[in-house]
Amino acid sequence: MAVATDREYGLFIAGESVEPASGEIRELIEPATGEPLAKAALGGEADVDRAVEAARTALDGEWGKTPGTERARLLHALADAILANRAELAELETRNVGKAISSVKAELHGVVENFRYYASAIATIGGRSNPIGGSLLFYSLKEPVGVAAQIVPWNYPLLMSTWKLAPALAAGCSVVLKPDPQTPLSALRLAELATEVGFPAGVVNVVPGDGPTTGAYLVRHPGVDKVAFTGSTKTGGEIMRLASDPVKRVTLELGGKSPNLVFADADLASAIPSSAWAIFYAAGQSCEARSRLLVEKSLYDEVVSKMGEYAEAIRVGDPLAAETQMGSLISSGHRDRVHGFVERGTSEGAEVVAGGALPDGPGAFYPPTVVAATNDLEIAQEVVFGPVVTVIPFEDEIDAIRLANDVRYGLMATVWTQDPARGHRIAARIKSGTVGINMPYTAFPGIPFGGYKQSGFGRELALESLDLYLETKSVVVSTGARPINPFAL
Q1: Is the domain of 317 the same as that of 189?
Q2: Per-residue model confidence as pLDDT tens digits over 241-251
Q3: End of a domain among 254, 289, 319?
Q4: What's the mean pLDDT when you consider all of the chain?
Q5: Residue 133 pLDDT grade (very low, low, confident, very high; cuts 50, 70, 90)
Q6: Are strands 292-296 and 259-262 parallel, antiparallel or unpaired?
């Protein structure tokens, strides 16, 4: 089933597609062409109320009684359904986001593996018991935290939905998922598939809507027990404030300005193409993009030159074409924002080595851009969220660590060196949730993913995620024969 441009995509509540209470429909634009793609419902407060009620009803009913073995079977069934519909999902995601279809197909593999990982992880959910002396017995129980509100961004709508849905469903929670209103299509289709494979109505609800209205209402909704958010640091701070009254559990995966350190002994045959991939994958619209390339001074000119050559060789174009390596940005407005960073950078003294010019023609395209800069410039400190890498020189290992940590964020880092001891030393000192040593790929099911500093808190993709959706209840039992009389009366 291809994208139906004449279809109106509804909200997904209580197991079916429904119209929004307001009747508001938004036209979606295909980023790579600038042409209309489809029409999708825009949810509001009344729709959030309906979705939360459906989620609570499911949790208090059939879903709340579903054993772990059945939840595992359903997660595997959903993974199978995604595989069976992968061509449709790949086209939906590519046309809605503008990302190269080759990249989306790789992400779909991760989507499937993530559901399978958490299906298996259900076997780890359980309490413990400890002898505490005398005639007392202690044991603990693990229970779902309740209804989870999950807010996902426009850059990875399907993958991020999976990162959040899989552990929540494994834990036995029900979910209200809010994708960005620009990119709701794959999340809506995922909810349909979940219902088709047997998840009870109301377990997975999808309400696309604007952040300041629908998102804010969802976060502060009294029927929501847990909030998980991926997006900007600014919005994450606002979500923390909204979730504080009434107090809710919150997980935040926020922005990054991640360093990529290249030492003089690095294998450039691997470091250059990997460093290019780490920033230009998904057109740089990734929270973990390694957008700050820190290079030892003796190697700096060579790396700048080779990165520029590599950037110019990347095939940018129609995201549905198999040969395309980088598609468009999400919108022309976002492209203008990215270009503004480059223009301000050059006015502050940065040098554009490759790219950096607005292309002619339709679509929100922007070329892979390499900028020689210093660490104090705006373009080296702020989240550009586009295919722009700043190349910054460093003197030695101490200077490299200082520069790597000299940002507000701490999500991801990569180190290139042939000295294993140095790699481990630096990994220990960089303030980052994940560090790759001679390895650009770091997001796999089973490896905790999350940030230090203003990149958020909590971990996804691993067993740690399950605890985010579970309550621990302690039970203490007296097994003695004598009655308990604390006041001795």
Answers
A1: no
A2: 999 988 999 99
A3: 254
A4: 96
A5: confident
A6: parallel
| Full residue range of the structural domain in which residue 333 is found | 259-437
Gap between the Cα atoms of 106 and 86, Å rounded: 11
pTM (two decimals) = 0.96
pLDDT, position 116? 99
User: What is the chain's alpha carbon radius of gyration, rounded to the nearest angstrom?
Assistant: 24
Instruction: Report in angstroms the alpha-carbon separations of 96 from 33, 37, 181, 289, 372.
Output: 11, 7, 11, 21, 33
- Whether 470 maps to a domain, the answer reads no
Q: Are residues 112 and 218 in the same domain?
A: yes
Question: DSSP labels for 208-219?
Answer: ---IIIIIHHHH
- Domain identity same for 250 and 268: no
Task: Looking at the structure, tell me whether residues 188 and 241 fall in a common domain.
Answer: yes
Domain membership of residue 461 (yes or no) is no
For residues 327 and 392, state if they share a domain.
yes
**Residue 163 CB burial class (10 angstroms; 0-12, 13-18, ≥19):** buried
- Counted domains in the chain: 2
Indicate if 288 and 231 belong to the same structural domain. no
SS3 at position 226: strand
CATH of the domain at 67: 3.40.605.10
If you search the block for the tokens 């360093």, which residue do you land on? 259
* Same structural domain, 227 and 278: no
How high is the pLDDT of residue 6? 67
Q: Which of 192, 222, 254 is the last residue of a domain?
A: 254
Catalytic residue set: 253, 287
Q: How far apart are CA 301 and CA 308, in angstroms?
A: 11
The tokens for 88 are 């449709």
Judge whether 96 and 186 are in contact, CB under 8 Å: yes
What pLDDT, in 10s, does the model give residues 161-207? 999 999 999 999 999 999 999 999 999 999 999 999 999 999 999 99
pLDDT score at 132: 84
- What is the full DSSP assignment across 348-394? TT-EEEE--SPPSSSS-----EEEE--TTSHHHHS---SSEEEEEEE
pLDDT digits (tens, 9 = 90+) for 435-481: 999 999 889 999 999 999 999 999 999 999 999 999 999 999 988 87
Q: What pLDDT is stored for residue 2 in this prediction?
A: 60
